[in-house]
Amino acid sequence: MHYDMFDAGIHIELTSNCNSRCLDCNRYVRGTDILNPHVTFGSKAILTTKDIKRIFDEETSSNAKYVMFSGTYGDASLHPQFHTVLHTIANQIEKVKDQRIKKGLDEKLILMMETNGGMHSDDWWIQFGNIVGERFQKWSRVIFALDGSDDETHQMYRRGVPMQKVLQHAKAYMGTGQRAVWSFIEFAHNEHQVKKAKKIAAKNGFYQFKIRRSRLRNKTSVPQEIPNNLQKKKNISSQSINYTSNDSKLFDTTLTSNISDDSMYFDKDYDKKFVNTDIKCEWRDKKQISIDYTGRVWQCCYFSNFYHNPIDEIHLGRASKEDLNKKSIDYENLGYYVDTYENNWNNIKYHTLSEVMNHKFFVEDLPDSWNNSLYDKNNPRIYRCGKFCGSNARELDKKLYKAPENVN
Fold it and tell me: Does domain 8-406 have CATH number 3.40.50.2020?
C-alpha cells in the first residue's frame, strides 16, 4: 500500500518557543508560570532548514496543496531563520513545478500561519509579506490571535502580547497586499465584545473574522475555568477565566471526561461514549499531516503531547519526564506501536516525510486500529482517536463550529 500525498496539507510546528503566556497553554505547568519540564525550549526546540528539506522531498513537494505553521506549544514567528525557512520551502516547490502543473495543482504552495503577532518589527512583517507575495499562492493568509476589542481584555488570556502591537504588525503585513484573518477565542469575559471586534477587524483591513470554540470539546460539559492561581497578571491574580456561557447549552452532561488528579488519565470505563464509538479520522479525510517541533510526524496534532505531557503543579517532581510520557503512551495503547517499530520511525530528522508517511503505521496499522477495540491484541485502538474523532466528538464539533465571516 502507498500513502496518497496528493492535495495534502502539511501542518508544521517550527518551534516550541513563544513570547506569550496564554493561561491554559501546556508550555506551562497548569495554573502557574513554571515552564513544563516535559517541553524542550530554546535553540534545541526548532526544526532546521535541513529538516524542512526532508519534509518537502520530491514526492511531498509535487503533491502538497498547502503548508500551515501552527503549534501546540510555540509560535512560528520565533524561529530564528523564519524567512529562510519560507525560501527553503518555496525553492523545494519550484523544483517540481512542472509535476505540480501536470497534476492540476498550482505551481506555488498556499502558505498559512497562526500567530499571536506580537514579535519583531514592522519591517520584519513587511519582509514576510513580500516573500509570501512573491513565492506563495495568492490565497495564502496569516491568522492573528486577538481575543478582545481592547488591550486589557485581550491580555486577560493572551498575556504579554500588547493588542496595539499585533494590529500594527498585521497592518504592516497586509500593507504588502497579503490577506490576514482575525482569530477570536470566545470566553465569558469577552463574548460581549465580538461585534465591536468585528468592526475593528473590518476597519483595519482584515479580510475574515473567525471565532474559535472547538477547544471547548477538550474540557468539560459545563462552563470551564482556566486556573491561574500562581500566574501573575493585573486584574486576574485571584480570579479564573471562564469559557463562554453561550456554549454550555450545547453539551450533554453525560459526555463529560473524568480526570483524576492522581492518575492524570481518563477513566476508560467512564468515558465509553467517546471511546466505544465509530472513528472517522478528520485529519486523514482532509489529507492533513502534523509535524511537531521535535520532528515527529503524526496523523493529527492531538498526538504531539504524548511526548510532552501537560501536567498540574501537584505532579511536579513525582516522576521523570520519560516515566510520565511512557505511562501516557502505554495507557492509551500507542505503546503497542512504539514497541513494535524501529527507533525514530516517524521522525523527519532521520527520514523524508514521504518515507514516514509510507510507514506501516500510517498505511496499514493506524487505519486498522480504528475498527478495533482498546483491548485487541493486534493493532488495538488508540484511546485519543476515539476521544477526538469518535462519532460523539464529531457531533459536538458540528455544534461548536462557526465558519469564518468575511469582513472585507
Answer: no
